[in-house]
Amino acid sequence: MIGMEIGVLGVLVLLLVVVAALIFLLYLVPIPLWIAAWASGAYVGLLTLIGMRLRRVPPATVVTARISAAKAGLDVSINDLEAHYLAGGNVVNVVNAMISADKANIPLPLKRAAGEGDHSELSRESYFSLSCRDLTKRPPARPRRPSSLI
Hints:
There is one protein chain. The chain is mostly helical. The protein has one domain. It has eight helices and no strands. It has helices at 2-28, 31-40, 46-54, 59-71, 78-86, 91-103, 110-113, 127-136. α2 runs parallel beside α4, α4 crosses α5 and α6 packs parallel to α8 (127-136). The longest helix has 27 residues, at 2-28. The radius of gyration is 26 Å and the shape is elongated. The model is unreliable at 118-124 (pLDDT under 50).
């Protein structure tokens, strides 16, 4: 009887370990996010997603930004977006600024939008307002003519 009890207990422990490993694996690999990226044409590898989790980069933020960029016709590397996040940048704002600039036919590469290199002054402003600044300028008001008194 003791041998059978240990066998049943061993199976239960093994089942518990398998379930815990499966939960941990599903935490590391966000399968729905991987499917969404693949279906939208902005492919991201499973190992890249696992690496993001291990580097404490939220995959949902970076992959969603990449999907937005790909849908807008921009070719932005997932590694560049991840590096920008790790440097403390706001990935979503940068991608939105690039999309807005592209729609306005303003060339805005990722390095400039992110405020890297010689363009560090750009990082002090809101990325979105930076790219939309030229779009939202209104023409100066025309001065009114004084009404003639008759």
